[in-house]
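We now fix the convention by which a protein and its fold are recorded. The integers have meaning only within a learned vocabulary of local backbone shapes. A complete example follows; check for yourself that the lines match position by position.
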Amino acid sequence: MPVTALHRTSHQIDVAAPAGVVYGLIADAVRWPLFLAPNVHVEPLDLEGSEQRLRVWTLANGRVTSWVTRRRLDPCARRIDFRQEMSAPPVESMSGTWSVEQLPDGSARLTLLHAFSVAGDRAEDVAWVERARDANTRAQLANLKELAERWTVLDDLVLTFEDAVRVNGPAELVYDFLYRAGDWPEVLPHLKRVDLVEDVSGIQMLSADTVMADGREHTIRSVRVCFPHGGRIVHKLTEPPALIAAHAGEWSVEPDETGVTVIAQHHVVLREQDIAPVLGEGAGLAAARRYVRHTLGRASTTILGLAKRHAESAVRLPLRG
């Protein structure tokens, strides 16, 4: 039986930030969809102690792939070793190491090593994985460098909030409305067009033309991962509008004894250089936070209200024997 080849890659970048800051960003995998452009969603399966087990969804060469990975964190050495337990074809195995070195001038050197094998070791499959791995790694390192070098204002750049509505209706109908985003232009006048593709069950690629609060039109593209049994839909903008560097969020439907609570969560990284062009000279981060909170909150509360109306106005005919 032929031995499957093990392919190795190494990427490195210097970051003008303390090593501890850089390590903190790579250790916080649950927030990677907000911090790292290729990552769509990270679902924690086990976060006990220094061991982590995660389900990861990532864009690779334009398509969404998913795998389960186990990570071992060593904060003292500023090192994280990982190994995929369940890889996405054509990858057969994938492992590697994140490491952060403190440099004498106070900056940090971030290194990411990968070792992977490909089922059958076909040249075209190896090339596909190498292309995806190289592009994603370069994007991730660039994202981490940009964020870490803004570490003194990072807490002000990151904005997290949620809106909620109470529904006196079936949770299934609420989820159905949120899931069928392709139908939203029928009831949302600011949406001019929505194209929704679901080639893989539960993975939706969405493109929409929308009218922004200031009257400008913008095309947004996002990826949505749907969990119907959990009543959740997580989403990640792949082409955010001006003022927003990254935007990830979640719709969640939570039934209880007396009804249903529907929650829209938003996680945003602001793009500081867009503040003056969008909001005018003299505007700062506080104004940008208020603007984004208002704009996104208004859009999500409108959708929440429509989901409420959809569930509460449904006609339920009595069963006939």
Notes: The mean pLDDT is 93.
